[in-house]
Amino acid sequence: MTTLIESEEHKALRSAVAALGRRYGRDYVTRTIAEGRHPTELWAEAGKLGYLGVNLPEEYGGGGGGIAELSIVLEELGAAGSPLLMLVVSPAICGTVISRFGTEEQKRTWLPGLADGTRTMAFGITEPDAGSNSHRLTTTARRDGADWLLTGRKVFVSGVDQADATLVVGRTEDARTGTLKPCLFIVPRDAEGFSRHRIDMELNAAEKQFELFLDDVRLPGDALVGGGTSHASGSGGEDAGLLQLFAGLNPERVMTAAFAIGMGRFALARAVEYARDRTVWKAPIGTHQAIAHPLAQAHIDLELARLMMQKAAHLYDAGDDAGAGEAANMAKYAAGEACVKAVDQAVHTLGGNGLTREFGLAPLITAARVARIAPVSREMILNYVSHQTLGLPKSY
Ligand SMILES: Cc1cc2nc3c(=O)[nH]c(=O)nc-3n(C[C@H](O)[C@H](O)[C@H](O)COP(=O)(O)OP(=O)(O)OC[C@H]3O[C@@H](n4cnc5c(N)ncnc54)[C@H](O)[C@@H]3O)c2cc1C
């Protein structure tokens, strides 16, 4: 049964990445944060080993695998205490969108670098006045000769300072109907009129979040993913934005689930170690069922979430975008909840030590919440399941 769920190749990848993660681990992350750096050494080594681009096509330097493999990479690095948040964004969203919908030129320009980690790309969709309601996006692109002029604002975009470019979700105005259509633009970090402001987050992470200002940012025609005109396949340019967006969002949910499961496993392992040793009565505290059972429950919840994540990744990699949508949402929901509970119980298990710097679990209390909020909140997933799966009417 285990091999049905996870192949020998996947198991081998899991243990190889886990070994890399152990060589870096939580102490490495804590040090890089204290020094105000990015985890560049881990990123570079993971890139060299082929882990960062494991999902990208072989002809562009990737490993030829899928989101199933990339989610294993992120989960195992997270379980070792050294997750790489930019994996969710750079190879998973941006790499997927470009390899599925980019022009040949965009693929050749970006994919080899995204695959070996020498280049990264951030992803900006969230806007201050739209939030969960992406129908309200107002970042707008208009034509100016062969160029585009992009204007708008984004918020909470991760890793813009370290990324060579940001994949920005905007809209273009359909000249015939006046309808606004989503469109994805590759915006270089130093483009004129593109500025950023770091948001002061209560998060102990190397990756930072930014508010972005796009003020008539002039972009060449080929900055639009898929190029300026629609392809016969319907996969390129102005008319394809919605397809491109959905192609990127399912991997994002799967990868957020992997991020959450990895973090939950890391916290749980620290708690189990502690509960085995710490003795304040006759036997270690792990002997008391009030301590052991919630840890067992946390383990079960993480395993169940992983099962749904594997289903979502499998459907996505098999080309079933619609089926993957439901499973990816459910996996993200389950993993976010399992992670928050696992971290909460881990901190509690350590008593006062749960809040000390030395044991390092307390920062995970806020970090775990990210998986409940982003990239789509718990409530929006419950809405999705209510409407799409159960067929209940909408309240909004
Ligand atoms: C650490 C971090 C990293 C992030 N990285 C990125 C990134 O790289 N790129 C990017 O584009 N964005 C990023 N985000 C943004 C993230 O995707 C948004 O925060 C998320 O989509 C929620 O949007 P919001 O914060 O505007 O909340 P809102 O939409 O304002 O929601 C606030 C609350 O209201 C609830 N709510 C809203 N509508 C409904 C409804 N119809 N029914 C029930 N409840 C509802 C929500 O569930 C939530 O609890 C990041 C966020 C964080 C915290």
TrEMBL record:
Domain Acyl-CoA oxidase/dehydrogenase middle: 122-217
Residues annotated as domain Acyl-CoA dehydrogenase/oxidase C-terminal: 241-383
GO biological process entries: fatty acid beta-oxidation using acyl-CoA dehydrogenase
Family: Belongs to the acyl-CoA dehydrogenase family.
Cofactor dependence: FAD
UniProt keyword annotation of Nucleus present: no
Organism: Streptomyces lucensis JCM 4490
Protein's name according to its UniProt entry: Acyl-CoA dehydrogenase
GO MF: acyl-CoA dehydrogenase activity; flavin adenine dinucleotide binding
Gene3D superfamilies per the UniProt record, alphabetical: Acyl-CoA dehydrogenase/oxidase, N-terminal domain, Butyryl-CoA Dehydrogenase, subunit A, domain 2, Butyryl-CoA Dehydrogenase, subunit A, domain 3
Assigned keywords, A-Z: FAD, Flavoprotein, Oxidoreductase
Pfam families (UniProt xref): Acyl-CoA_dh_1, Acyl-CoA_dh_M, Acyl-CoA_dh_N
GO cellular component: cytoplasm
Domain of life: Bacteria
Ranges of residues in domain Acyl-CoA dehydrogenase/oxidase N-terminal: 7-117
